[in-house]
Amino acid sequence: MKRRHFLASAAALSLFVKETLAAPKPAAKPASKPVAKPAAKPPVRKPNGRPAPNARNLRQPAPPPAGPRVHTAEDPVIERPPQGTSATRLPPVKAPEPPTEWRTWEITTTVKTKAGRATRFWLPLPLNQDTLYQRTLGHSWGGNPEQAAMRRLPDGDLEVFHCEWKENGEGRLRFTTQVTTADRHFDITKRTMPPDREDILRRNLQASRLIPNDGLAHQLGERIVGRIKDPVAQAKAVYDWVIDNAIYDPSLPGCGSGDVRKQLISGQYGGRSADINGLFVAICRAIGIPARCVYGIRVGPSRLFRSLGLASPDATRGHHARAEFYIPGYGWIPVDPSDVRRAVAMEGLSERDSKLMALRRVLFGVWEMNWVAFNVGVDLTLPGQQSALPFLALPQSDADDDLSYTISARQVEL
Fold first, then answer.
1. Which domain holds residue 121?
2. What pLDDT score does 402 carry?
3. Is residue 70 part of a domain?
4. Do residues 274 and 331 share a domain?
5. For residue 309, pLDDT beyond 90
6. CA within 20 to 30 Å of 300's CA: 60, 90, 252, 314, which one?
7. Best CA proximity match to 391, nearest among 308, 338, 320
8. Mean pLDDT score, 24-38
């Protein structure tokens, strides 16, 4: 597929774009009668026979086209930026428009511990900063922990609820969070996002313990993108390659291990969401595109496929990692190649099924927000712990055999 064809289809097939933006054509001007021009005088010649330079025979530069320049899917702004700007730091055209349709979710985690053992528990919380697709409304909790506090970790703006029980009885906790979400989509016809902070972009180009950005990842990325220069098209090539080569394994626990390094060494690509989307992130970083996994949990049914949402209020096994990559002028663009592979595994679709092909196009640029984002942190050390976790999506405890938890989620009206 040619780059311009891909860019056009990515905009047209985005799930939630209702109208294609088109620049109004100027009205045709009535033809005017030709005006007779005076006969040109012969140019004055130098002794060597060449015309002497003067105001009439000097070549004049072509005037710039009138009116604002309109960029479309076949004329991407990042390939030919307007005069006076930089392709690495394009200024916003206008402020992004906030969504109008929001849904509110209530997520409740219930914890029980056995008597006779001191226990510590860490619960990842939704994003503590409001975005255009998610806002945290508040938290409430009850139970009998001896100590309890909300703690914020610097990496990835991660926030956790940390509590402890002593050895004097059975522990109980009920923690409830309310979050409102709006479907998120990328529109290639709009350039509205200001540049992100340099330290955030650098962090999302660096390797982590399980996500490399050099060696095999770099070689693979160079082979995938070839001569493609447009960064959006490069990311789309990586996205397509991951879908074509990764296998979703529903038997693995949680979000998977997220060990991309192991996949690259073995040549066997796949796993669960942290593995497949982590592979996408590693290859993007290796070719110079900032990218990151976003860890969270499914909270409601899906309008796309049944397997991409909850079938009941029970969200205990609903943890899911997504991914996004950064392009100047467009900001962070959402993707989810893992859910394309999940639909193949769970729905029994063939690779040539028209529904699967449509889902494949949609999930490059769309997050259906029946899902709540927790954080983007990696290589994390929780309060009171010594060893680091590669990422945090599921609740954690230092006494897993003596602790049990359930998570429920439901949509509420405020």
1. 104-180+380-412
2. 85
3. no
4. yes
5. yes
6. 252
7. 320
8. 47
The pair of three-digit structure tokens given for residue 184, joined into one six-digit string: 């998120």
As a whole number of angstroms, the distance between CA 263 and CA 254 comes to 18
Token reading at 290: 């900032």
**How many domains does one find in the chain?**
2
Structure confidence at residue 42 as a pLDDT band (50, 70, 90): low
Q: Give the number of residues written for the chain.
A: 414
Strand partners of residue 149: 162
Task: Give the position of tokens 């220069």.
Answer: 229
236, 363 Cβ separation under 8 angstroms: no
Q: What's the rounded Cα separation, in Å, for the pair 158 and 378? A: 10
Mean pLDDT of 11-18: 45
Is residue 154 in some structural domain?
Answer: yes
The CATH number covering residue 135 comes to 2.60.40.2250
Contact criterion met (CB below 8 Å) for 182 and 101:
yes
Read off the tokens for 349: 């679709």
Residues 235 and 362 in one domain: yes
Instruction: Please tell me the pTM assigned to this model.
Output: 0.77
* pLDDT value at residue 324: 98
Tokens in use for 144? 């009998």
Q: Residues 140-167: pLDDT tens digits?
A: 999 999 999 999 887 656 899 999 998 8
How far apart (Å, rounded) are the C-alpha atoms in residues 93 and 384? Answer: 46
